[in-house]
């Protein structure tokens, strides 16, 4: 209950304070390239229930289901505004709406698409999906440059499934075991610091 109140309070404050920034980003996206402002994608949430995550669109608009599910290096689909949004993580701000409506938490294991959840070992799957997915977590901080890391692999998707994903799951399981409001506050502070330092 304390975690949900924490999420609801901070997401409400964030949406109110950041409303002008959200509107400005939306306008820049529309001016930069044709297509919708928001990117919606099905992810797997708490207890394995699917939900749609929201982000600012950072790539050229394409029909749903087309193109690879991971972004590798300097992907040619990324727009000019999208590159800035990705580097600063501002593309994640619409997920405050997902937190406010209860589909996500501010801090928690990052939600994956069903294709990659299918690769979770059963024991870790049950543990990681026992909590709401989050906007940030320790894996998000450690893998800030995930696209650049995968770009060095001969087969980026295979590297993601067999190398990156197991480590992310281990970190997510550790978070679930230690979860608390204080840990969430610390991880939010670390995330903000990582963005500002960059």
Would you kindly provide a written description of the structure presented here, covering whatever features stand out?
This protein starts with a helix and ends with a helix. The protein has helices at residues 2-32, 80-88, 95-100, 114-117, 122-128, 138-142, 146-151, 156-178, 181-197, and strands at residues 38-44, 50-56, 105-107, 134-136. It has one domain (2-197). The longest helix is centred in the N-terminal third of the chain and has 31 residues, at 2-32. The protein is mainly alpha-helical and 198 residues long.
| Number of discrete helical segments | 9
**Whole-number total of structural domains:** 1
End-to-end gap? 34 Å
The share of residues in helices is 40-55%
- The secondary-structure element order is HEEHHEHHEHHHH
Read across the widest sheet, the strand sequence of neighbours is: 1-2
The structural class is mainly alpha
Averaging pLDDT over every residue, what do you get?
Answer: 91
> Total number of β-strand segments?
4
Give a short account of the largest sheet: 2 strands, antiparallel
Approximate strand percentage = 5-15%
What's the gyration radius in Å? 16 Å
Low-confidence stretches: none
Shape assignment: globular
Entry summary:
With 198 residues, the chain is mainly alpha-helical.
């Amino acid at each position: 209950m304390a975690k949900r109140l924490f999420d609801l309070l901070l997401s409400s404050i964030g949406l109110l304070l950041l409303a002008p920034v959200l509107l400005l980003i939306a306008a820049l996206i529309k001016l930069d390239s044709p297509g919708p402002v928001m990117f919606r994608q099905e992810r797997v949430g708490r207890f394995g229930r699917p939900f749609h995550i929201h982000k600012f669109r950072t790539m050229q608009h394409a029909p749903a289901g087309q193109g690879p599910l991971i972004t590798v290096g300097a992907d040619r689909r990324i727009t000019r505004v999208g590159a800035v949004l990705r580097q600063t993580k501002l593309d994640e701000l619409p997920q405050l709406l997902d937190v406010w409506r209860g589909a996500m938490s501010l801090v928690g294991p990052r939600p994956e698409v069903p294709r990659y959840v299918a690769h979770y070992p059963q024991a870790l799957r049950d543990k990681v999906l026992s909590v709401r997915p989050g906007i940030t977590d320790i894996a998000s901080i450690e893998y800030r440059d995930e696209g650049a890391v995968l770009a060095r692999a001969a087969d980026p998707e295979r590297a993601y499934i067999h190398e990156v994903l197991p480590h992310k799951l281990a970190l997510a399981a550790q978070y679930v075991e230690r979860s608390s409001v204080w840990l969430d506050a610390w991880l939010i502070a670390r995330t903000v610091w990582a963005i500002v330092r960059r």
